[in-house]
Structure formats: C-alpha cells, structure tokens
C-alpha cells in the first residue's frame, strides 16, 4: 500500500482515499423510521413561527442584508412603541420650571385654613421697623444760596415726557443743568403721552409760584421766553434749535457742547429730556437736584389739600392701630399686565384682552418678526406684576392680620371684580381714594392720571409702611422722599419677587414654612431701609449723603458723609 502524498508529483495522479464502507440497510431503515416518529411527535408550527423561520433562512443565505439591521431595528421599535410616525416630528413634553406658572390661587386655597386660624401674629405694624443706623441718624441739610445771580447765558426750554414721576425727574434735572450753565429755565412743558393721556400743565400739578420763589437765589425761572427773542423764530418753538441729547449724558457734555450753542442762540430746546443727565455728578449739581426735588416741588393746593384730607381720614379709620396704616402700590392695570407679557389665570379672555391692549398701546412692538416672548422665564425672573391675591397672601405671611388698614394706590385694576375679591377677603379694611373721597371731591381730578397719581403719592408718603410690588418711578421717588422725611429709613417693604415666584409655585409648602420666608423678607426690607447712594444710583431714591447729613449721637457733630 502506497503512502498518501498531499503534494502532486509530476506525471503521476494523486491516489484517492479508500471508499467508506456501505451502511447496513437495516440501520438506514431504523434511522428513517425514527425521524418519521420525531416529526409526528412535534406540534405544527404557527404562521408567525414559519414567517420568522423563513426570514431567518433568507438572512442566513443573504448575509449582506445585516448591513441594514440597525435601521430595521430602530424602525421596528418606533412602530412598536407607537410614539411617532414617519411623517410627524416627535413632540417632547417638558415639565415647567419651578416658579414659571401662576399657581397662587391653588396655594391660597391650600393655606387658607391655617392662615385664618393662625393667632401667633403680634402687632406687626407697630414693631416692623427695628433697624437703626449705626451710631447716629440722618437729617435733611439742603441749603439755599443767599447771594444774587450773575447775568444769564440764555434760556433753556425742555419738554418733560412720561408720567408724573418721570416728569419730576425731568424737572429736577432741568433745574440742575440750568443752574450749572447759569441759564434761565423756562417752566417745563409736559409732553402729552398716548398711555397716560393727561394734558395737565405744570401749574395744575405743582405750585408754580412756590417753585420759582424757592429757587430764586439758585436758578432763574420764568413762565415764557421774552417776545424780542421769539421774534427771531417767528414765535414758534419748533423753529428753535433742538438738542438731541443721549441718555445719561454727563454734566461736562452740557458745558462743552450745549453751552456754546446757548451763548450763540440765546435760547435752546431739549426734547425729550427724561433721563438726559447722569446720576453721577459733582456736588454743585447734586445740591440743585436735592433742592428742586425735596424743597421746591410741592403739589398744587387742590391736590395737596385733598391728599392731606385723605391722610387724616386714613389715620382716623386706623385709630385702633395708633393711626398707623399700610400703603400698597399695586400695578395690575390692564396696560401693565399687557406690557409684562405674563400669563395669569384669566384663560382665553385674558389672552385676547392682553393681545388687544398690546396692539393698542404699542402697535406691533410685541409682534415683530423674530421676537420670542417667554412668559415662564419672565415670571421666574421676578418681572411679572404681583396680583392682588399675591399681595394679600404675602402681607398675611409677614404678620399683618385682617384688622390692618391698607390704602391701595393704583389705577383701574384689570378685571377688578374677580381679581380684587381675594385681597378684600384677607384685608376687609382696604381703602382707595375712591372709597375715602366723595365723587364731588374727586371730580376735578378724575380724568387726569397724573393728578390722581399725585393724590396717591401724598397718602403713601405719610403711611407707616409702604409696600412696592413693581418697579418704576413712583416707588423709587417715594422711597427717596420717605428716607428724606424719616431719618434716612425708607420704611418700605421691597419683596424678593424671584423668591416669591418659587414659593407661590410650591404645592408642598406649609403655612409655617411660608410664613417663615415672609418674615425673613420683611426683616430684610427693614435692614435695607438705610442705604447710601452709590455713583450709579439715583439721588431721588437715595438722598444720603448728598441731600442729608449724618448726626453722630455721641458728640452731635454733623457730616455730609457716613462715618
């Protein structure tokens, strides 16, 4: 037998291996019989099983199809889960961020029982202000000049735009600029605005004669420009050169740019004039601002008289609290709610009302292409106006019980009947100027928003506690004026609205925890009552140390600066 050679040799064929032995016919018969028996024992396959077996067979024979396996798997999962179809973009639902949704009514309903049964509150209105300035106190120290004025360099005519207190800013800044440039100031003209719609003149809101008399040794002020000068301009103010001054310009800009033109023309016009002078200015300019705001500007006799009558009536009503009352500046008028772009609980009607109000007041400003409005983010950032309900809940949490007397300073509240109901339930002794004064007493002021605001300003100025719920010129001027009157302390509650947004949207918070947060907020307002002006701050909000002097109790010495 030749050995098996795996390498072919030349000229010889490779021998084949020996054939396998034949199987026994009996063995073949036995195996065939066993296979038939096994098939008979197995149950028949269902249609899905046969289909799966067929697909598997195809895959095994066509292995290239495995390249598409991931795509087939993902498609199968999407179809099985039923979340999307091939022609629809998947919708991902996000949970609203904490504080981004108005849920204050639900919170009040949850806390109402505990709030009404809470008897732990002390006399909050008499014990709220505990903080005093270190080592002394602040007192007004604005001095008028006693000498005469040099010859005038010309006349300055300004147009004061905005509401009551924005116009007040313009007046005080105009006094400062005219005094610094040794110019004669013409009584400012009030620009008619489409929002406030008040055609009142200077003398109808302020005591013009008192204003001129108080400033006579510091700034010349006249009612009108002399005729011989106006002849050059055909007696038309629009022909007078108008300076377009950038906001927050320095006083040096006025000296370098405005004064030369004033000396040349003898009269100039600045329109608009709101916020056209920097807060950071030398002491001579700041003194004139202080003098104008805290001494020279006094409301006209009709406004002042009615304001003082309402203060007396509030003190009489709150005699059980020692004549002390709270004043609240509530900004929940339709235009304010619309401008904020916040969403409350008024449903479809509210959305339509606000859309119409925005279009009426600002004509396309909120519908410009590309502008995105995020109501939730606005609320989280503390920019939404507080509702009457939220104000009431906050004050009850701060310890003011339902016997507290409140003066409400506001315009016409949006959907007043529905929105004011919760606040009136929590504080039944809430009063407004319409409740305190008769229709006859209010009739001379009824259709003039600035005059009505001046009445509110007077009553708020003399309250024991002032509560601001939204930013703006009204609370900022009031805080400064109250500091000037009350030894440097604003006696003002300024809520942390970002924190409030989170608390009002917390469904698990209890009354005790909520009240603890409110008392801490109240205490923080007390500690921040004394604040000194920084360079970028408004002197109309922070009169210390430019308009007030510090008195040291130990030696009774005065200084214009803090110790």
Automatic annotation (TrEMBL):
It comes from the Eukaryota. Residues 25-34 have a biased composition (Basic residues). The keyword Oxidoreductase does not apply. GO terms for molecular function: glycosyltransferase activity. GO terms for biological process: fucose metabolic process. GO terms for cellular component: Golgi apparatus. The chain crosses the membrane at residues 65-86. Keywords: Carbohydrate metabolism, Fucose metabolism, Glycosyltransferase, Membrane, Transferase, Transmembrane, Transmembrane helix. Residues 1-41 are annotated as: Disordered. Belongs to the glycosyltransferase GT106 family. This is O-fucosyltransferase family protein. It comes from Cucumis sativus (Cucumber).
